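User: What would this chain look like folded?
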Amino acid sequence: MAAITLIEAVTQALAYEMANDGAVLVLGEDVGVNGGVFRATAGLQQRFGDQRVIDTPLDETTIAGLTVGLSLQGMKPVAEAQFDGFVYPMLDQLICHAARMRNRTRGRLTCPLVLRVPWGGGIRAPEHHSEANEAMFTNVPGLRVVLPSSPQRAYGLLLAAIRDPDPVIFFEPKRIYRQYKEEVPDDGEALPLDVCYVLRDGIDVTLVTWGAQVKECLEAAEKLESDGISAEVIDVATLRPLDFATIAESVARTGRCVIVHEAPRTGGFGAEIAARLAEQSMFDLVAPVERVTGWDTHIPLFRLEMKYLPSVERICAAARRTMERS
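Assistant: Here's the prediction, encoded as structure tokens.
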């Protein structure tokens, strides 16, 4: 079994599901002939034809509307937004129609669609190409929000997202698209949605994160271990609905929590996790919750980009503060 990258795992999952379910189709800007801007759909049009891998106009509003319409007619469309900053014209269709369809029809209709969104910074891209805007979707009832952090989880969670009867926003951290490889069996085995993954056990502090920041948190845990601090690392993976029980169980053991995300601090999804800890886990905490986040600015271009993103050093410093304040 060959090791593959995260982007190759996305391609593999799409190909598997298209081969085994004729209702699955892919659409978006340049997804067909060119195989997508990141080559996530490379080779799919040649294999499945241009009726199932559809190049659309450069019009995100139309893409979203087509996706909702196709899902209501028995198809399982997987649409691509080329970049995270391009999703804003899609919000009307996603929020006002896809997310409400089950409730609007009292369960008679659902919208089994996936919107794939290359997400986050770290690739030295221009404005609109490096945003971490997941929090705005977690506030919408009826949407699932999924954010994998490895090739294995990208494959399994994308299969689960396509098979889900309701709309899923599937953010793909493009900074780690080709950063490392894992062996990923092409066996069609989906991973469960709506659960957090404990990637490393620890007893002193819980690091909670998602997406590309999982790598930094695992590296921080290694560094903290050399200082005698045992850090547990949790990959949230599905932000909505949130598996808070796994986070709460970890914090009950460690007594401390550091939440890490690259989105701006104010209104970020980390604030939701911190609020739930305050409501439900107050008496388990022996130190205030720390957040390590992006800054409350638009992500700066090029030279300052990596200064904006949470670093191993910032994560370690936050973890040490929780140890000092207990």
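The longest helix spans residues 6-20. If you want, I can go into more detail on any region.
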